[in-house]
């Protein structure tokens, strides 16, 4: 039964890739905290069930419409354009082969990713039906082996249920390998992103490592540290401007004092002139 559902999920992913419709790059992705990357040959709407489930848990996901069945170079260009519009500290959920694109991204774009969760990634390479494979993505590819350390530069990296046994030692010294399949109730690479029980397990894991942050209302003003510092300097400047004005006013008061003293001698001279006629009468 599990094999049948896995096969049907695979067919559904192929159909979604055939009817792929190119979408324009969004100008801003500030309202999205999770980017979901489809695997090779899968369309964006194949992951709508995952996006709706994560949205119900408080996250704001966005499925990146990567062009299926294109060269690695073209897919990376499309992914790079979306990541440039994404906000810093973004969570990326990469399914299947899309996880192999992360090490090939430019360093500046890769820094936008704070948490990387890979689902069923073939880190050692793959062959579809044992025949088809991308160039440099074949099993035991030397290119993939060279790019492997780039995963460890991600702040938080969680390779869940990888294809074939693979051991990682990220910054927190925790090992991830095929044993991660035990986290999911229903096995299968494509069942990872479609079955409700697996989605529940994934959302609980995400909530434990990176819980959702509620969006900021549009009518609120957020004061950053730079703005607060600039306002403090403005207050200091206003104080400096007010002090010279007080000094000028006090200086004007001192200048008026000599003028009042000069008027008093004039009154005294007038009294002396009045006293002289009295002496003539005697």
**Broad structural category:** alpha/beta
User: What number of domains?
Assistant: 2
The CATH homology group name of the largest domain:
Alpha/Beta hydrolase fold, catalytic domain
CATH topology of the largest domain: Rossmann fold
Task: Provide the residue-averaged pLDDT.
Answer: 75
Task: Give the beta-strand count.
Answer: 5
Order of helices and strands: HEHEHEHEHEHH
Oligomer: single chain
Profile the largest sheet.
5 strands, parallel
Residue stretches low in confidence (pLDDT < 50, at least 5 long) are 169-179, 245-257, 259-263, 269-274
Kindly provide the name of the CATH class of the largest domain.
Alpha Beta
Global Rg: 37 Å
Strand order of the largest sheet: 2-1-3-4-5
What proportion of the residues form beta strands (DSSP E)?
5-15%
N→C terminal distance: 147 Å
Overview of the structural elements:
It contains seven helices and five strands. Residues 169-179, 245-257, 259-263 and 269-274 have low confidence and may be disordered. The protein folds into two domains: 2-209, Alpha/Beta hydrolase fold, catalytic domain (Rossmann fold); 223-282. It starts with a helix and ends with a helix. The chain has helices at residues 2-18, 48-56, 72-85, 107-110, 142-147, 196-209, 225-281, and strands at 34-37, 61-63, 90-95, 113-119, 156-160.
Give a short summary of the structure:
This protein is α/β, with parallel strands linked by helices. The chain has helices spanning 2-18, 48-56, 72-85, 107-110, 142-147, 196-209, 225-281; strands at 34-37, 61-63, 90-95, 113-119, 156-160. A five-stranded parallel sheet has the order 2-1-3-4-5, with helices on one face.
């Amino acid at each position: 039964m599990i094999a049948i559902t896995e096969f049907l999920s695979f067919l559904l992913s192929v159909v979604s890739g055939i009817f792929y419709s190119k979408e324009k790059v969004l100008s801003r992705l500030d309202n999205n905290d999770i980017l979901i990357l489809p695997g090779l040959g899968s369309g964006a709407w194949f992951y709508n069930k995952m996006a709706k489930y994560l949205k119900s848990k408080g996250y704001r996901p966005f499925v990146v419409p990567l062009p299926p069945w294109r060269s690695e170079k073209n897919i990376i260009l499309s992914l790079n354009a979306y990541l440039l519009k994404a906000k810093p500290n973004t969570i990326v959920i990469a399914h299947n082969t899309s996880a192999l694109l992360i090490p090939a991204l430019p360093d500046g774009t890769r820094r936008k990713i704070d948490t990387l969760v890979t689902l069923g990634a073939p880190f050692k390479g793959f062959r579809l039906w044992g025949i088809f494979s991308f160039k440099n993505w074949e099993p035991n590819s030397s290119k993939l082996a060279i790019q492997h350390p780039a995963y460890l530069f991600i702040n938080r990296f969680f390779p869940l249920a990888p294809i074939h046994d693979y051991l990682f030692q990220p910054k927190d010294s925790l090992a991830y390998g095929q044993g991660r399949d035990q986290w999911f109730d229903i096995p299968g690479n494509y069942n990872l992103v479609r079955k409700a029980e697996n989605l529940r397990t994934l959302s609980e894991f995400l909530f434990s490592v990176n819980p959702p942050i509620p969006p900021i209302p549009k009518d609120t003003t957020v004061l950053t540290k730079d703005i607060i510092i600039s306002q403090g300097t403005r207050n200091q400047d206003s104080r400096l401007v007010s002090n010279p004005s007080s000094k000028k006013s006090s200086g004007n008061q001192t200048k008026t004092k000599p003028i009042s003293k000069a008027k008093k001698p004039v009154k005294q001279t007038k009294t002396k002139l009045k006293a002289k006629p009295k002496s003539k009468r005697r």
